[in-house]
Amino acid sequence: MLLRILGTAAGGGLPQWNCGCPGCQAARQASAGTHPLYQSSVAVRATDGPWFLVNASPDVRQQLERLRDSHSSPIRCSPIAGVLLTDAEIDHTTGLVILRESAEPLRVYGTDTVRRALTEGFPLLRTLEGYCGIEWSVFELDVTTTLSLGETSGLEVEVFPLQGKPPKYMRSHAEVEGEGWAVGLTFRGSTGGVITYTPALAELDDRLLERFESSDCILVDGTFWRNDELPALGITDRTARAMGHLPLSGPDGSLERLAKLSRPRKILIHINNTNPILIPNSVERRIVEEAGIEVGYDGLTVEL
Ligand code: MLT
Ligand code: MN
Ligand code: ZN
After folding, report:
1. 88 lines ligand 1 (CB under 6 A)
2. Ligand 1, residues 17, 18, 59, 91: which to mutate, most atoms within 8 A of Cβ?
3. Ligand 2 centroid – CA 89 distance (Å)
4. Residue 89 CB less than 6 A away from ligand 1
């Protein structure tokens, strides 16, 4: 199995168009070893199978260009066999519109809750009916699905529920409570490798820690360093926890518990541009690395 990070930054990317925080400024000036990062997405494939895109970011056009096989050039050739969605957030779904040129209906996997959000609140699915169309496959919670295309060997993905929050655009809709707003994915390749991906982590309970401990590699929500990161910068009143992202530092932050895991390789993803761990010479970056945790980067590939 191969997994490649296509975008390491959270929504807004690095730099974000309207942001002058130290991380965005460093990325603009390419100073202190800070480089621009695309928005949150990964691609995954079985060793001899097609790529599947996991979350479709607004940067998907440039991201997919990096997945292309330069040898194959029929007039229309998609570098991906389908799109897996872990939630209905704008940064994880807007890329579907960019994929409207698809010659076939796009194969999209997601929960019923996500499908409803993308039909009622942010009606991408209805919009795309006039273009390529969508072939929706339901992600059932706690069920393993085999992703395959034609003759090629499959890749197994287990879908598990996370304590997600509805996207802001769904707040005015009735019945937004319930499960399925955010899921995590555990991929199992044919050679036994296990990768778990959780880009939106609101809580880290024992059950999830056990899942992490029985994985070879985990890609985990590293959105914020501090719970009050955005309020402290005067950007918004909303804390990391209120936004459904467990901060890395502080009491009950994720860092301490992730550091204690012994088996998996641990990589942070979905990192907000305000998070000081994106600046390589920062104190916070050193704390993360000394805890045995890696800060992801675009192009990082895990092979298992
Ligand atoms: C999130 O990860 O919390 C959302 O993507 C935030 C947003 O883009 O509004
Ligand atoms: Mn996001
Ligand atoms: Zn910024």
Report:
1. no
2. 91
3. 6
4. yes
Residues 20, 274 contacting (CB under 8 angstroms) = no
Query: Please, which residues bridge with residue 295 across strands?
Result: 268
| pLDDT surpassing 90 at residue 143 | yes
Burial of 20 (0-12, 13-18, 19+ CB in 10 A): exposed
What is the pLDDT averaged over residues 85-101? 98
Residue 242: both structure tokens together: 């209120």
Gap between the Cα atoms of 142 and 19, Å rounded: 39
Ligand nearest to the CA of 230: 3
Q: pLDDT, tens digit, for every residue of 31-53?
A: 889 999 999 999 999 988 899 99
State the alpha helices, DSSP H only, in 169-247: 206-213, 229-232
In angstroms, what is the span from residue 91 Cα to ligand 1's centroid? Answer: 6
What is the pLDDT at residue 176?
64
> 99 and 132 in contact (C-beta within 8 Å)?
yes
Residue nearest atom 3 in ligand 1 by C-alpha distance = 243
Burial of 63 from C-beta contacts in 10 A (0-12 / 13-18 / 19+): buried
Q: Average of pLDDT values for 56-79?
A: 88
CA separation (Å) from 74 to 60, 63, 271? 21, 20, 36
